[in-house]
Automatic annotation (TrEMBL):
It comes from Marinomonas balearica. This is Beta-glucosidase. Belongs to the glycosyl hydrolase 1 family. Keywords: Carbohydrate metabolism, Cellulose degradation, Glycosidase, Hydrolase, Polysaccharide degradation. It holds the Pfam family Glyco_hydro_1. NCBIfam families: BGL. It comes from the Bacteria.
Length: 446
């Protein structure tokens, strides 16, 4: 099995960007080195019962020390670009002053990426909020949005010359909802009214930061990355159709609509008014700043039926394929979601900023034969191609992930990499999927 695209695919043309993605907390390690401050994920990991096997980010993939080799690994995959995130607690001290050692890590890394002909896609916030800000209320505190703008200002001034594309946030849904409403991610708070308020402050921080980044980096693109799911109704019954609509509204529209249309979804005013955040005058204009691109992270789909209390309830579908993390493999849902959004909104250029599969990989005789991931990537890359053919303006695709890493509450138990990481030795081994991805990319005409 290989990963292929139709010969005439736009994705094979030179201006379509292929890459691999990672995030700071998931790979860097060195979480007390060179003045890096504690972040909410350090605290969460240290809280018994929160992360599987008590895993933490102290070493991770040791990328903080192995970055130079890792750039060669990225290059060896034949990609055009690398998507990484900056660790806020590494580059700014509690007083808001730059941490030069932390900044130097990113300067060296980015310089090396550029020297190897790779484009740099940087995300400012992939969930590692400095703990001292959480101690003041974190994303429930509107002030954190102002602190984020100061951080964004510092980083985009210091690192801007290397960065082709800035994303303010990765997945506000996960940062806000999983962190403050469901509590399965840091900081682990769980109150129904918290999630949407945290989300509003994150979106506000995004909107306030956009003009600052534009001023500091006039030649870079600026956007945001959302995770999105396609939800199917469990049956044709009107109540199940409604359940699916509510679910997509909460997961997707709640985030995309304020950014593109300056409002929270009207449906919520009717069916879940207590879910609407406290919005101050002017906030929606700030949040809906024009952006150069929207990133979409896509992994799976949901099936929902009506539930009297919560309006929707997940059901497991029979006869479909799942990955090792229990997520259904649904490439058709990917193209449908993109095509639906393109009908519903005036979308900016889209980038698929994450897509990938967790598999129960094993290293045998120096090789990892991850057939399911190869099939997953083939299906989803072709789903992107289908969406492009149906008229969606998609400019790039990033596989999640460059290498196995710290998968949040699942610790190191779930492997998403195109490269296998032996956490004892830190040895990296490109999996069959990594080679299949490389072969697709090398097949492109230069
Ligand atoms: C996304 C995250 C990313 C990774 C993948 C599997 O929600 O952005 O860090 O954990 O899921």
């Amino acid at each position: 099995m290989s990963i292929t695209l139709p010969d005439n695919s736009i994705m094979l043309k030179p201006n379509f960007t292929f890459g691999v993605a990672t995030a700071s907390f998931q790979i860097e390690g060195a979480n007390t080195e060179d003045g890096r401050l504690p972040c909410i994920w350090d605290t969460f990991c240290a809280t018994p019962g929160k992360v599987l096997n008590g895993d933490d980010g102290s070493v991770a993939c040791d990328h903080y020390h192995l970055w130079k080799e890792d750039v060669q690994l990225i290059k060896s995959l034949g990609v055009d670009a690398y998507r990484l995130s900056i660790a806020w607690p590494r580059v700014m001290d509690e007083q808001g002053k730059p941490n030069e050692k932390g900044l130097n890590f990113y300067r060296n890394l980015m310089e090396e990426l550029k020297a190897n002909g790779l484009k740099v896609y940087a995300t400012l916030y992939h969930w590692d909020l400095p703990q001292h800000l959480e101690d003041k209320g974190g994303w429930l505190n509107r002030e954190t949005a102002y602190r984020f703008v100061e951080y964004a200002d510092l980083v985009t001034k210091e690192l801007g010359s290397w960065v082709d594309s800035w994303a303010t946030f990765n997945e506000p849904f996960c940062a806000a909802l999983l962190g403050y409403e469901v509590g399965v991610h840091a900081p682990g708070l769980a109150k129904p009214e918290y999630g949407r308020q945290a989300a509003h402050h994150i979106l506000l921080a995004h909107g306030m930061a956009v003009p600052v980044i534009r001023k500091n980096c006039p030649n870079s693109d600026v956007g945001i990355v959302l995770n999105m799911n396609r939800t199917y109704a469990a049956s044709d019954k009107a109540e199940d159709q409604f359940a699916a609509l509510v679910r997509e509204t909460l997961d997707n529209q709640f985030f995309i609509e304020p950014i593109l249309n300056a409002q929270y979804p009207k449906l919520l005013e009717k069916v879940l008014p207590h879910y609407l955040p406290n919005v101050l005058p002017g906030d929606m204009d700030i949040i809906s700043q024009p952006i150069d691109f929207m990133g979409m992270n896509f992994y799976t789909c949901n099936h929902n039926e009506y539930d009297e209390q919560n309006l929707y309830r997940d059901i497991k579908k029979e006869g479909v394929e799942y990955t090792d993390i229990g997520w259904e493999v649904a490439p058709h849902a990917f193209s449908e979601l993109l095509i639906n959004l393109n009908k519903q909104y005036n979308l900016p250029p889209m980038f698929i900023t994450e897509n990938g599969a967790a598999c129960a990989d094993e290293l045998k005789a120096g090789e990892v034969d991850d057939d399911q991931r190869v099939r997953y990537l083939h299906g989803h890359i072709n789903a992107v191609n289908d969406a492009i053919e149906a008229g969606v303006d998609i400019r790039g695709y990033f596989a999640w992930s460059l290498m196995d890493n710290f998968e949040w509450a699942e610790g190191y138990s779930k492997r998403f990499g195109l490269t296998y990481v032996d956490y004892e030795t830190q040895q990296r081994t490109v999996k069959r999927s990594g080679y299949a991805y490389r072969d697709l990319l090398l097949s492109r005409a230069k």
